[in-house]
Amino acid sequence: MTRYPKKGKGTKWTQKELLAIPTQWVNDTLADGDGLIGEVRVSKVGDVSIRFKYGLKWQGKKCWYSCGTFPLNDISSIRNQRDKAKGLLKQGIDPRTQKHIDKIEAKAEQQTILEQQKKQQQRNKTFTDLFTTWIEQGVVRQDANTELRRTFEKDVLPVIGSVLIKEITEDHIRTVYKTILARGTTQNPRERTVVKLAADMRQLFKWADMRQPWRSLLINGNPALLVNEKQLISADYTEERDRILTPEEIQTLYRLIQQEQNHYNNATNKRGIKLPLNPATQCAIWICLSTLCRIGELLMAKWEHIDWEEGIWFIPRENVKATRGKKQDHYIYLSDFSVRYFIRLNTLTGHTQWCFPSKDNTSHVDIKSVSKRIGDRQVKFKDRTKPSQQRRHDNSLAVGNREWTPHDLRRTGATMMQELGIDINIIDRCQNHVLAGSKVRRHYLKYEYKDEKQQAWAKLGKRLEEILALSNEIL
User: Fold this and answer.
1) Does residue 22 have a cis peptide bond before it, meaning omega lies within 30 degrees of 0?
2) Which pick of 203, 261, 273, 438 has the fewest CB atoms within 10 Å?
3) Strands (E), 48-173
4) Among 127, 225, 117, 226, CA closest to 167
5) Mode of pairing for the β-strands spanning 330-333 and 61-70
6) Residue 6: DSSP 8-state
């Protein structure tokens, strides 16, 4: 049915009339004059809309030109579309073809605007944008980049995170390093932090300089290469740690651990007494010292890696800390000393698959957990201003005049082997070092030095037994 406005045929529909059209008029036609008609539609939820079209003749055929849908389009704009079509017809232009051309041109214009916006966004990329991309695509560390994120989020992004890449200079990089050094104290001058960060910054910018859009934004080249961090730190700085525990310090350490444990065990009321060092951590200390392993390798170990019959601990290459492509499986021939602490550890965690399980037993503990526990008990070597209530804050493991770490135990054990007359090449193999020499030599010379390594670990274990025996006498 064709319907007309209230004023009758030949008049135009008003906005108010169109809005009042009932759903019962679905599929009816509305005549608006000058060839413009509308078809009433009703949606599933009862909303009324009217699709308007203009009837025209093109090359002798009746055609329809869509003018828009009410109320999505205002009725006046719909009529303007009809008038535009009439004007094109007078010029001998098919309005339908012109509309198609207009759409193509509008789309092309929109694409041009989007491309311009994209280029502008690329030109306005900041250091934070670069770091985020690099950390996701350009670098893979053994700890899943956790430490890298922490360092940059703490020391770098607050200083230069908002700086545009195209504007970044060596002065920005130097400011980052100086800001870190300004936080330094006598105990911790932060020089090692700056040296490590400088290496990471060079790696980041080297990666960026090889890829777009970063390469085009680094108009002045790699700014990290222009900063020599060694000019900012003291002349007597040494990059490598050289801390080893003397036999007397090992005795003292053993004594401190045992005294704290005995004090706790013998206390009738344990509520007011600090907990002793975690028993599993106690085992970790002596296993690290007696096997020369890295703490991360130990904390990721599974009980299936221990061959009790042969006295062998197998460290799979995926647990080894080394350069990618140079990781290798490692077999440690356990001394009686090491076996004793593995047995003690097994009584604590043997019900799980992990030697050092997480709280829910679904994985191993965080590989930094033991280092943190040990560090929390040597606060006189720290510069903490606000000790955490959930962590220890004392000197119950402090021995000597310098802080020691689990990795220092590895160095200590290797040094003790050297003092026992063990060949340095055997010590390197006990530490699972990738030995120097040509690839051809490493490829063909496959002798494993099993007996020599077994004897080396046995000698070290025996020496530790002697040292701790003296501690037991004092206890």
Assistant:
1) no
2) 438
3) 48-58, 61-70
4) 127
5) unpaired
6) T
Task: Give tens-digit pLDDT for 244-291.
Answer: 999 999 999 999 999 999 999 998 888 878 899 999 999 999 999 999
- Condensed to tens digits (0 to 9), the pLDDT of residues 416-442 reads 999 999 999 999 999 998 766 545 455
pLDDT for 298-345, tens place per residue? Answer: 999 999 999 999 999 999 999 988 766 678 899 999 999 999 999 999
| DSSP state for residue 366 in the 8-state scheme | P
The two three-digit tokens of residue 283, written as one number: 């085992």
Query: Identity (one letter) of the amino acid at 9?
Result: K
pLDDT of 359 strictly over 60: yes
Say how far apart CA 51 and CA 68 lie, in whole Å: 6
Tokens describing residue 16? 């108010």
Could you give the domains of the chain? Answer: 2-93 (3.30.160.390), 127-231 (1.10.150), 247-474 (1.10.443.10)
State how far the Cα of 166 lies from the Cα of 221, in Å rounded to an integer: 10
* CA atoms of 60 and 56, how far apart (whole Å): 10
Distance CA 346, CA 434 (A): 31
Give 154's DSSP letter. I
Length of the chain measured in residues: 475
Distance CA 353, CA 362 (A): 9
Strand order in the sheet with 306-307: 306-307, 312-315, 330-333
| 118-169 per-position pLDDT tens digit | 766 678 899 999 999 999 999 998 788 999 999 999 999 999 999 999 999 9
- Complete edge-to-edge strand list for the sheet that includes strand 29-31: 2-3, 29-31, 36-42, 48-58, 61-70
Res 332: pLDDT = 96
213 Cβ partners below 8 Å, 6+ apart? Answer: 122, 125
Radius of gyration of the chain (CA): 38
Q: What are the Cα distances from residue 353, in Å, to 153, 279, 305, 360, 449?
A: 35, 18, 10, 12, 30
Element (H, E) at 105: helix 95-123
Q: Which amino acid is at 45?
A: V
What was the pLDDT predicted at 96?
Answer: 86
Work out whether strand 29-31 and strand 312-315 pair parallel, antiparallel, or are unpaired. unpaired
* Predicted TM-score (pTM) of this structure: 0.67
What is the greatest pairwise CA distance in the chain?
Answer: 118
